[in-house]
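Exercise 3.2. Students should predict the tertiary structure of the chain below and write it as structure tokens, then compare their answer with the key that follows.

Predict this chain's 3D structure.
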Amino acid sequence: MESLDLSSMAASIGVSVAVLRFFLCLVATNLISFAWRFVPSRLGKHIYSAASGALLSYVSFGFSSNLHFLVPMTIGYASMTIYRPLSGFITFFLGFAYLVGCKVVILCSHWFYMSGDAWKGGGIDSTGT
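Answer key:
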């Protein structure tokens, strides 16, 4: 079986390869979530969810985005461990503070290094830019 030529597929529908990979992962999410029902144990479901989520985000955005996803996940689990009644509130505000901080750093580095060429070429990252 031939491997998929993503560049020709992306060109035929008028999007970049990064956007096509994101779309394919979005479609694959339906199949992966359907298979989740058949995982027998609670621990197995946690492992399946973590592994499939990490794989999909890796394919969509690359390895560095998986590292950025670890921070909000750690905040969420830590807040549930430390103070469960306010864990949603803590995770929401600290998670968004982290994302805003990352966005400010990204915007400053784009301005400083003039690295917006990849974005102009149709690239995508986990923040949507």
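Discussion points: The chain has a mean pLDDT of 82. Helices lie at 6-13, 17-36, 42-61, 63-82, 87-113, 117-120.
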